[in-house]
Structures are given as structure tokens and as C-alpha cells.
Amino acid sequence: MRQPPPGAEVAGGYATITNPTDAADRLIGASAPFAKSTEIHEMSMVDGMMRMQPVAGGLEIPAGGTVELAPGGYHVMFLELLDQPQAGDTVDVTLEFEHSGSITVPMSVAPIGAQKPAMDMGSGHHMGHGQ
């Protein structure tokens, strides 16, 4: 995730999620101690304007596939921030999957305006049934 600007009430989280199983799963939610609530969002172009909206029904992670949560696309939206994570921090984020259940992962906090999020969480996160 990127460090939110001072006074911000929202922030975005990014990761690469790999499903090594032979069955599709869905990312249906998330939680973090620094946010009152979270939503899984997607950015898309509608009538020439970039729009952000919650993903209805969760985000499918295909069997044997990978889905990237990245700026300008799918992401975890942290709402009503209770704390302001700072660049260099690592925060725990719990991802909730339809079949794999809850998986808590560390998420690095990049500086405000970073072009790419830190890679701690993304590259190594694999989900699986029973984890």
C-alpha cells in the first residue's frame, strides 16, 4: 500500500494473489486494524472517465491462476482510517476467501506517490484450501 496523505480517510492496498489449487476461489473481503472497514474495488473506464467501485460478489481467483491487485485496477480499499500507516511500516491485512478462509499477510507501506507498491506482500502470497 502507499502511505496515505495526512488526514486521508481512505487508502488502497495492492498484492499479487496466486491460487495454486485446482479449484477457483473468490476474494470476498478483507480487514485491517488501521481501517474501520474495507472493500474489494476495481477501477475501470466508463464514458472516458476513470471510475472506482466495489466488486460485486467478490473477485475470482482462477484455479492455477494469478490476479494482480494494482494501482488503476483491482485493489483493497481501506475505508475510515483509524491510523495513518507510514512509509517503511509493515501492516497486517487479513484477506477473506470464499473457500480458503482467512489469510493474514504482511503489507509494506510505500511512500506517498510511489509509482509501484513495495513487493513484500505480492510476490510471495499463495492461497490454498485449509490455510
UniProtKB/TrEMBL annotation:
Cross-referenced InterPro entries: LpqE-like, Lxx211020-like, PCuAC_sf
A Pfam family assignment: PCuAC
Superkingdom classification of source: Bacteria
Protein name: Copper chaperone PCu(A)C
